[in-house]
């Protein structure tokens, strides 16, 4: 009977793994078909993602509408979340959920009370470690939005750093072919996704609305603290004021960014070496020594030439 139960459990988990494998294959094939249809029908998949993102933001807005009731309290209780810091985090993260500073400040207080409610509920139900849950769940609810928005901002800046050299090479090639910078940006960003496209699409929209070019560049600087991106935009402002060819600026910036990325990889590799040595010294080496010493002791006590065989 026990063997039958064990066999059923193994079959169940094997079926789950098989289902996950085939479901993953289905998702990959579906993604390929969608991309193929988008290419054939000349539909931009980025627009679909934007619509999906907007629907998600609208849903989140409905779910967190009660957070507005706590916005005044949240702006007074602003530990680790000053209003100017929150505004900067939202700007650098792209604000995918369309949060305002007031709603963000109210959201952390709202989640604080949600965590407090679940902590009290855990004590009433009698769950194990409920007293620790009561102590830490409100703190977790308060700091969760702060951690998530800061992580999203950092992730977005890393994506910009990763895609920027290829973007610059493509724009430089287009400009050298005689295309104007504005037209090159409009055409090139269609082949990119993510924050690079979002930032330069917004830049193009501001130019279309009559915003001065230098002011639009300054807005790009405010929304991104990536050092490579900042260097590029400052070079474009300087080139615009001094009359330096744009293609040359883009090409030099792309080469510099690739060199900086290579140096950063070397730096990370150099930092990893002491960590590997530390792990080897304090974990692997002692365990190996203990295993060898244990085998020697077992051989001395239980082997053919053990110390007990002499008696």
TrEMBL record:
Membrane topology: Multi-pass membrane protein
Keyword vocabulary terms for this entry: Cell membrane, Membrane, Transmembrane, Transmembrane helix
Pfam families, sorted: T2SSF
Main location: membrane
Protein name (Swiss-Prot/TrEMBL): Type II secretion system F family protein
TM regions (residue ranges): 6-24, 107-126, 132-149, 276-302
Ranges of residues in domain Type II secretion system protein GspF: 167-292
Localization, UniProt: Cell membrane
InterPro entries: T2SS_GspF_dom (IPR018076), T2SS_GspF_sf (IPR042094)
Record's keyword annotation contains Transmembrane: yes
